[in-house]
Description:
- By secondary structure, this protein is α+β, with helices and mostly antiparallel strands.
- The protein has 14 helices and 23 strands.
- Residues about 1-5 have low confidence and may be disordered.
Amino acid sequence: MSTNKNFIKQITKRSEDFSRWYTDVIKRAELADYSPMKGMMVIRPYGYEIWEHIQSNLDKMFKDTGHKNAYFPLFIPESFLKKEAEHVEGFAPEVAWVSVGGDEELVERYAVRPTSEAIICSMYSKWIKSWRDLPVLINQWANVVRWEKVTRPFLRTTEFLWQEGHTVHETPEEAQAETLKILDIYKTFAEEYLAIPIISGLKSDAEKFAGAKRTYAIEALMPDGKALQAGTSHNLGQNFSKAFNIRFETKDQNLEYGWQTSWGVSTRLIGALIMVHGDDSGLIIPPKVAPIQVVIVPISRGDWKETILPESEKIMKALKNKGIRVHLDDRDTYTPGWKFSEWEMRGVPVRIEIGPKDMEKGQVVLVNRINREKTFVKYENIFSELSNLLDNIQNNLFNKALKYREDNTSTIDRMEELIKSIEEKKGFVRSGWCGNPDCEAEVKQKSSATIRIIEDKKDLKLSKCLVCGETAKKTVIFAKSY
């Protein structure tokens, strides 16, 4: 933990420079740091613990729906990557290659895993022979490498951590159901655990995953008005199964290619969490994924080590036994005020203060990280009051972010209004679209905004394409994005 007493003050205000604020918070809260290699970050213990909570909760959701974990090689032979033409073309600019092993030139180059469809499909072609082998529902937790030109911690780095699911099904209907099931898991997790409101839906062909038949995504609105693609679920159809010869004997003894999906979320979710909930004092971490849900700060006055500290230790043990992630800050090298600021900066949802007068009254003070509101609670009521407060903080963070999104979503039916809205107000713009890729490209060229999702239901008020004026076939959400 940092010993620089000035580091709490060294956070740029969000209103002054949002980008600088973001990186300041990451460094001061010790979530991550820059490594010696350009574009690669070191995830520090506090940041990694957030990822562990994301990982463990998502992993349970996957396993509850029948998925199992496996692990596949980091290196992918070049010939494998080239089997699906659209896939390799989409990833070619980002692929890192290994051409030397030890002191010998490799006969064939290896790609450092940018995504694992190629290597996993090569194995599925060996494992799947009959309809009895289906469905295959496999997920892996791994790292990937994509040689990015512009990087930002957690949001876009050369190496990052993620999970990637890869499934094979007997029918196209089963594959589509799987694709939407995972999309719903992602949306549920983001909203219920990260307290981030999500819009979800189909991507346009211009924005879909290279090699996919259809791509669905969850999108969140950041406080600077940009959209963040927080997860994707792809219906691959038979594109990869045909390229890798994943065939099975059907129930009526015919040969059929498998119907596949792939899907993933990454450490980008931590970046979303930082931006959506943080304030000028630093992080605010939703209780469900907070490494420390409660910090106890004994007021260090007089003989506090003989009086207040033992009482604080009893409270800590009692809360731990109830399943609360609690930390007791018993350092005597810092003042209570300094500790208050530090733990606020680190985003701990609730602080418990206990001083001499509190002990006399048999109470503690609960402090809410969102608004710093104080509640005086008797010892016997600490757990129940604390549980309610943690639930309220989780819900209030979501509702606050939802209100921001609603306040910054515009419905627009003219191109010039969209351009103005994107430049001045930012946020999401709901518009009609005829479905022509040329109109989509024109919006991107004139405003830098892209279609984030295609909504399931057409908005009857947006009956015309905002670009060409023809009948709108779809209602879409435009935004600038990360």
